[in-house]
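Data availability excerpt. The first of two example chains:
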Amino acid sequence: MLQICEVMAEPPLKKARMEAGNSENLLKDDQYNSSQDMFANSIEEEIDDNDWSGVPISTIPSLNNSFNLPSQYPAPHPGPSHTVCVQLPLSDGLPRPHPRILRDVWDAFHVRLPWARENLYPVEDKNVRGKKVLRSRWELIIESLTKDKISSSLDLEEAILTYNTRYRGKPDWNFSALHTIFTDEFEPEETEAFFDHTLPGMVDILISSPNILTSPLPLLSAGSAHSITISQQQVFVILVNAFFCTFPRRNAKAGGSEFSSYPGINFNTLYGTCFRRPEAHLEKLKCLLSYFHRVVNSCPMGLITYSRKVVPARGVPNWAGSSTIIPKLHLTSNGTIEVEGRGMLQADFANKFVGGGVLRSGLVQEEIRFTVCPELLASMLFTEVLGDREVLVVVGVEQFSKYEGYSDTFKFGGRFADTVELDSSGRKMTSVVAMDAIRFINGDDQFMMRNIDRELNKAFVAFQNRHVSNLQAIATGNWGCGAFGGDPMLKLLLQTMAAAEAGRDVVYFTFGDSTLVKDGGEMYNFLVREDVTVGELYMVIRGFGKSGRHLEGKELFNWIYQQVGSSRVEQVDLKDAYEVDTDSDQEISSENKEDEKVSTLINDDPDLPSTELTNSDKWLNDQMDDVEKFPVADSSVGEVKNGGFFAALDKMEKGELETKDTENICPIEASLGLANEASKSIDMKASSAVEKKKEKSEVVIPKNQPKLTDFFPTK
């Protein structure tokens, strides 16, 4: 079996094992050519004229065409605002860790890593019956994963629960989906090969974690503009530890726990049964298992930079006074952001908790991107919930899986060979920006000016790049639509306006919506023909919100056609009226001033009746010119003090004690609409119009679809 594992390429087709032996090679060739030939011809040459509008895509600047754009991001350079975890300059082979010797930090400003000395756990005292003592949790983890051979998912579950004993029997620690994929989905030899080869390789990497990731990882906390550059091998260390659920203090759900404003990172929530979309959930697991198998066998040697961008209030444009013209716009109903948007800045339609529901039942745009590009998952370890003028930019991420479908129809399509070139710093020239939209319960609210401004500012922060002047285009689409209730026609205009101010052109993927391609193209041609500026369009949109018309995209477009000419004649009057109305419309009474400071944790909570609290990051304040790195405190070696076992445990596992059902709902689950998922009380009817449209248009995978199409060779 070991010999078979060493030559793993593509998995068998279970119902077609006796087909011609060349089928495997044909499948492999198809997979590898998929990315190599992606841009052999421009999109307009490959699709029907009715499938795109605006300008030809060949006129849009990207890193793949003849525009000869400069490198879009600076090389990693260690400093107060940039943590670099590898030795520079890079040498041949895997990047060497920096510092050379582990620097152990355990404080509120850094990720609490599993191998820290202060990471302790209660265990039974072997010498005194009934007595518990604190032991190194890292030693317990290593012992649990190496003491006995792990031959099945049941063994794996028991090993993980050995150092997570307090969660045994809890809903979020149900391993039923993991059992299903190894017993019902995989062939016996596939399961055997995973536990004989892939899993032991993952355990070896886990044991070596302190020697590979030697630098403390700062938390990318709210208000802090900071970057982290790590190697792909170090990212693998993070994800292996997430797979084995080793990260301490990250399992708390109550709103007041230490990391309640951060996404989850341990994979335990991924292992349970998904009642919303059980089959697609198993396909998600296949993608991640394929990643682990591939990197165990051949670890990539590049770097990845994760950057939290923060812009103060006075750093955003004066939208009403903007004289910037509309940028180039290409709309297409074909293709996806991550494939046809290659060479462009690629939008991730993020939840404010980056990653959204990827470690739960989520499987829409952001979750799919994190699933096929698992290195994005590492950002969930250190990125705090995003504020109104904050985004996360990831440079160098690699795609590892192909896929088909969307949401309930999602299917793992096999291994993906990412042929994107490296920049001079060893990073893939792929950049992804996580930008979260407001969740609207009432669709009319999105036309309120405070929400228009918020979305414009968020998109501007996402698209802005002060490092270079010649920018690649932004590849985006129906941001914040579907489940978040946004109107695609409005979001098209807002993103185009933000891109104009940021100096970028736009490629807009409508995901099969040919009507938006037609209507959006006509609107774009009109705006260009009439020389409409961003400021003029802003004022017209503002007027629409007060027009008394039905507040939806088609009416907005009709309003723009009618008002553009007259708005110029009355431009001065409109601006004066805007200043007066802004003061009166958004005046806040003294009793509600404190509410404006409430965290964005509640901004898009689906249980809230409105979205009025969109300026929740005002505490960043206007006088902030440059956000500096927070001071690093000394390690809290003495956090666990005398005072009894339970007192010490409370301090050690802050926020992780068992909670009653009557306590606060986890804000992460609330933001995802998943608060009741563990109890199966899921609203099965809550699907977006966009999701339905995508599902209808997806190609049906043949019945002989392999269980895991890139894991094991055909006998």
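And the second chain:
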Amino acid sequence: MVNARWRALRAAVSLEIVRSRRSFLRASALGDTVEAGWQAVRESMPIEGVHACWQAIVAALPIERVFARWRALRTSASVVAAEARWNAMRAALPPGVAGAPASAMSRRVLGLVLFLAAALCPLYLSEFKVGLIALGIAYGLFGVGLDLAWGRAGMISIGHAVFFGLGAYGVAIALQNEGSALIGGLIGTVLAALLGVGIAVVGMRRSTNPSTMAVLTLAVTLLAEKVARDWWSLTGGSTGIFVPVMTSTNSYYWICFFATVAVVAALWFGVLNRPLGNRLSAIRLNDRRAEHMGVPVFRERVVAFTLSAVVSAIAGGLGAPWMTSVSPERVGILTSTQVLVWVAIGGKNSILGPFIGAVAITYGQDVLAASLGNFYLLILGFLFIFSVLLVPSGLIGLLRSGRELVDTTPKKTPAATSAVVSIGAAEAALPRPQANGEVLAAENVVKRFSGNMVLDGVSLRVKPHEIVCLIGPNGAGKTTLLNILSGAIDCDAGSVLLRGQHVEAAPPHLRVASGLARTFQIPSLFPGLTVAEHFILARQEAGLIVPLPASYAQLERNHAGRRVEMLSLSDRRSLEIAMALCSRPDVLLLDEPAAGLARNDAGALARTLRALREDVGCAIVCVEHDMEIVRDLADRVVCLHRGRVISEGTMDEVSANDEVRRAYLGMA
């Protein structure tokens, strides 16, 4: 009892001291200033929103480790194999059976039902709800524009609202001055396209890193919001521009609806359902592999981002009359963050996903915000975190199945007269260099990294149909030389000639078009795609179908429907080589093709590569450490050490060289 009373007395004294100190602080001028500042901060709505989102993030942190373990479990080999067996079983079920994939006709019927429900909603909903759905559709089109850059091409844009705002401001300014809303929206769209080209050209250069676009778009949207607030004469400042309500809500709804349908249809049939759509998917999944397969990555990214800006501006123009006023927030960071949430929740890399996310959140915001207040922002933040961690493909991703790419396989063959041609016919149909010429040559190539000399005047000449193996200790510059030959990096000095043409300044995709192909030390493929989809991409970029050697054709037949993650290492290497052969190269660059393979697989690979010279007729430059494979494979061996060629000749001649023994073999 004494202890209890003592604890009570201590608590009372401590509480009284705290109260006295707090009263003294409040009575001081500093206390009044701090309290007034705190009240001002609490009354500002954006800070409340940030606070709510921050609380949601903090609440999610304790289960981050659980989510990580769940993702690791889902991507494990056993789960992937079980999922593949389950999908195969579902595909075998007849249409109409529970769990079976819907037929193409069923999907068309479902799409038609949703289309009619949206088109006819003015007939069975009030004007207020029709306005909410119309605004949600405009936001959904905005999300489709962002998804074209983010979900399709993998470019992160944190300030995409600047394009949406340009379209909205174009319409609002035109209506304010009693002009044509169509012309105003067109001007805003053109400005958005020009700005999109500028941002993409600056942010997507080879010298930039992936975060450059995020920082650049963030800076642009903050600048645009500042300009919109300060340019009173044009934008109305912080209050914005009032947009008069349309006389007929239903009529304008149908105009917006069918305009949205027209934009989406043009995007689907003109971009996504064409080779460009496949290229964007390849760039998103593995831009390095795409570029060395012949895809002009920089150009396609600029095109995708520009189209994304145009679609977003059109969405802003259509949505302006439904917003009643266009204010600086429409080009600012808040709207840019909201569209990221819409796309993430609805589903990236889809047409329907952004519309589902935008309409649901826009409608729910008006219905729930009045009753929940700021807690609605907390719920929205939780949904965003939930979708990113547990459902990264969004709600629409739960329903998506089947092939991701469109079958754009060309119909023509090298003979151009029949679907099946012999190797000899294919060889005759393609131009080849003269037998006494050099198909590839490097002269006095120099490369430095941070002042360190990696290649010091290296020269290499490769004749048609010749197999050259590059050997040397680790750090000798072998892979660096291959990177310079393929265009992955630029040389500091020297020249590279391909079929007699200087290509040292050419990007990789132009070298592929000139007859060069390469593989990487670690197989560089497109995660998530099947073997058949890899061949679709390779043949699409080649522009024709060429017959493959028997072993690679068998790989396509036996594993067409399997994802590359489920293939063995040897099969992944074979797939990468087969994709390179689809372009019918004159020179094939291989970087340690036998690395990680068992002895029998490595021996089989060496025999297959030697057969390529007879079947395909290409020269091969191969980096390899296994001396037995080099002896079986090479016509000529080039040994590098410390960035210099120290020996060249047959395997016996090189291995007998004293300098090679000291530098590479560790022998006196």
